Amino acid sequence: MEERYSRQIVIPEIGIEGQMRLRRARVLVVGCGGLGSPVLLYLAAAGVGTLGVADSDKVSLSNLNRQILYETEDLDRSKALAAVRRLRALNPDVRAIPYEERVLVDNGPALVRQFDLVVDASDNLETKDLLNSLCVEAQIPLVWGAVQRFEGQMGTVLPGCACRRCVFPVLPKPGTYPTPAELGVMGATAGVIGSLQALEALKVLLGKGTPLTNRLLLWEGLTQSFDTVEIPRNPTCPVCGTSKCCWGREPR
Amino acid sequence: MPGVWDLKVLLGKGTPLTNRLLLWEGLTQSFDTVEIPRNPTCPVCGTRPAAE
Prior knowledge:
The structure holds 2 protein chains of 2 kinds. By secondary structure, chain A is an alpha/beta fold. Chain A has 9 helices and 8 strands. By secondary structure, chain B is α+β, with helices and mostly antiparallel strands. The N and C termini of chain B lie far apart (32 Å). The model of chain B has no long low-confidence stretch (mean pLDDT 83). The longest helix of chain B is centred in the N-terminal third of the chain and has 10 residues, at 2-11. The radius of gyration of chain B is 15 Å and the shape is flat. Chain A binds chain B through residues 13, 150, 186-189, 191-192, 196, 199-200, 203, 208-212, 215, 217, 221-226, 228, and chain B through 1, 3-5, 7-8, 13-17, 20, 22, 24, 26-31, 33.
């Protein structure tokens, strides 16, 4: 175990203890596309013990400018299954579990409760809002990200902190906003935000550093501008306004 | 970030990180951009003649 992880075990914030913590951790990644690809690859490479890999789609040619989990020969294969195969090849230590399904109101609650942390790498606002509600309800940390063209956003939701609904109180109706296919996205843009999400998830699992809670990160790649906007928790938020303040660990 | 930057240069779009230094600290997710003026006496680029 030690040689594979030697370059991170040497970091004071990680060490053997942190590496054991990662091995015990269970992370659900929802969406195995542009964001999910770097998230899953980095979490698997870092030795996160259990990875839930959720996506109901099949690999298509238009995915391959950014979805670096897949190869051309994976066309028409289930993304969840192809991703799991790739992750097992990368790191056999990792238990990667495929879920070839969309996360919805009926299957979501039981699914997220099997994990210590959820990474939202989905490509639609309905799933993002649902994952936020599910994680607040189950008091599970959530690291969400979103990208289009040359820009992206990300944030972290921990119990007791502002949730995604505090940031985006109004959910646009499906069909009233442009789809990723219409907007377009650069692969490297998804790589930037997905990599930030992976690091953020590792920090939360390790209990190190300062997570992006009560903050929204806005990145604009064309100008290389990074802005962090303070987002206070909304006490009347319909999702988290009544959630409990303590989540069983020290506040970070 | 290098990937996106390289693409921007190849495409000639956006504003490259010239005369600036990006500093990123992942543990706190803090990003800082520092202005770096060109050094007129720089031994590498300071004496380079202007392109024709």
